[in-house]
């Protein structure tokens, strides 16, 4: 009839939850951590870092972000910037070895949520050396296959000296780490680390284990000029992980020292040892990652840190 009517209605807009992405989980060397990543483990006593980002189509939403590290630690962050993305980072140090369920979740102020998760394998020094050695063993086998080492031996044909040296030096590094039989060699880094699991022997054998690690790194350095390109980055990861393993060993000795601090009292020798430890540890951190030579110097600094605590060894049982 040409009239004008009016209708009142309520429109309810559904909330769209945020979307979250686990950009990376990495260790102090910058290697990514997790199944299928650069390394499958992280070390007790060393820092691990997680980077996440999220987006939300709600223009006025605010968000709360939870990093649950799986060991009872939950870090909370508030995102006071409406709509748009992060990224956010959080760091953590695990104090015991285990497999931890790591979860990052985000909640908006309309009860929308999203989460990402990853299992983190946290290990001590010896376990890390065993894992790393097994991976290095696979690398040696792949390197031999690529260079046709077995076929050439059967045929009595020699390849270039460079190819032979690449396999030779990496194999020698592997022997330094695990011996000739997966840690059975009594002088290998793994065997010495295993002996160091007894508290009273920790300083002595961890110090010796780091000596073998330094030796292995020297072989990596010798192998470098002869390695085919695809293997160089893998060896760089091995080398950087050996540096972190050395630091983890020093931190483990330091943790033991602190647990005996009451027995040692505050003697001048003890305090001097702690100061020298901290100085050597800082020096190692400054060296680390700058070059092949600096990485080796970093391990030597961590070894010196252990020695500094040994010189103030009143905190070790029955070693006064």
From TrEMBL:
SUPFAM superfamilies: PKD domain. This is PKD domain-containing protein. It comes from Attheya septentrionalis.
